[in-house]
Specification:
15 strands; four-stranded antiparallel β-sheet
Length: 366
């Protein structure tokens, strides 16, 4: 009897030892499983943040495309600047080689140098973040440590907009028989509100009949295709043009109530330069101010569509122009018709409506 009790006791001790071993293994497995879940979650988070950075970088780059060399240079600069805002430290960087360009979404992507050599038709930009090491702890027992994560994003200009909701409160009048030509420079003259003479400019009235003269003067627009021209003389049109344009060059003499803080000049104020030169200088300028204040998007109307009785005009399209110099004593507004794909702040596209190929918005495609 004594021997039997001893055997039972030994068996129970063996069972307790087995339970302890199983419990220890279970705890270890649980810890490892929890650790692997934490590591995998960290990898997913890191990958998501890396992809978000690539997306933002590509969108910022696409917003600078303008069919010019300077636009390509600015695209690379903005991609770098935006990525740096994500504060990944020294682990994530970007170089010019990581930003490539293409004419078509699924076409061949070329280097910055190649894009600068032929920028007119570039509409898409791809940002590729090369593999970056992300350290892991528990999952290192099952997968390699560190894990290399990468991301890429492609953004580009949208199809032409049917409406731009953020345009300058002017209208330029062109001859129906001799429309404005891209890259050409025009010396537009002011005319009275009831004058339909072409190759000229007018100041628009606001939606309620009031001139848009607040904020950054002549910088805001409103929705529509039919506009009212302000009931002003040519001299008054000239006065408002000086107020609206000259502050963009840092000249506040004609607008005493303005200042550089509330009405900042452009980052490039050199007069008499071309749009191409302007974009090239923008790409290297470190001057304070607001980019693209010298670029105007506004309604272009045919003189045949100008009703001189009630001063209403029907827009043929919204066009993009570069202001070459301040408005002087002769009241002429010297502009270059850009007529190239240009990203604008706010716009809409309505399927079936007439699209304006030169006005687009940056879009993240993939």
């Amino acid at each position: 009897m004594h021997r039997r009790e001893k055997v039972v006791t030994n068996n129970r001790r063996g069972e307790r030892g087995s339970v302890l071993a199983i419990a220890a293994l279970s705890m270890l497995s649980l810890v490892l499983a929890t650790g692997m879940a934490i590591d995998i979650s960290h990898l997913y988070t890191a990958k998501s943040e890396l992809q978000n950075a690539a997306d933002a970088s590509a969108l910022a780059a696409a917003s600078q495309l303008s069919s010019t060399r300077g636009g390509i240079k600015q695209a690379v600069a903005e991609a770098t600047k935006t990525l740096n805002k994500y504060n990944f430290g020294n682990n994530v960087g970007i170089s010019g080689a990581d930003v490539t360009f293409s004419e078509n979404l699924n076409g061949s992507y070329v280097s910055q140098a190649s894009a600068e050599a032929s920028p007119a038709s570039i509409r898409f930009v791809k940002v590729t973040l090369s593999p970056k090491p992300v350290g892991i702890t528990f999952a290192a027992l099952a997968i390699a440590n560190p894990q290399n994560l990468s991301a890429k994003a492609t953004a580009g200009l949208s199809v032409g907009l049917t409406m731009n909701k953020f345009y300058t409160a002017y209208t330029f009048v062109e001859s129906t028989s001799a429309p404005l030509v891209r890259t050409q420079t025009y010396a537009l003259v002011p005319k009275a509100g009831n004058d339909k003479a072409p190759t000229s400019y007018r100041v628009l009235a606001g939606p309620n009949g009031d001139l848009i003269l607040t904020g950054t003067v002549h910088a805001y627009g409103y929705i529509g295709s039919s506009y009212n021209v302000a009931n002003l003389t040519s001299a008054s049109m000239c006065s408002y043009a000086k107020i609206g344009m000259n502050t963009r060059f840092g000249d506040y003499t004609v607008h005493p109530g303005a200042n550089s803080a509330e009405h900042p000049p452009d980052t490039v104020t050199a007069e008499g330069i071309t749009y191409q030169q302007y974009r090239d200088q923008q790409a290297t300028s470190a001057a304070s101010g607001m980019k693209n204040r010298r670029i105007l998007t506004l309604p272009v109307v045919h003189n045949d569509d100008y009703n001189t009785t009630n001063r209403t005009v029907i827009a043929d399209r919204l066009g993009a122009f570069f202001v070459k110099s301040k408005v002087g004593a002769d009241c002429k507004l010297h502009v270059e018709y850009i007529g190239a794909p240009l990203a604008v702040p706010v716009g809409t596209f309505t399927p079936g409506s007439s699209a304006m190929s030169e006005l687009t918005v940056p879009v993240l495609y993939k």
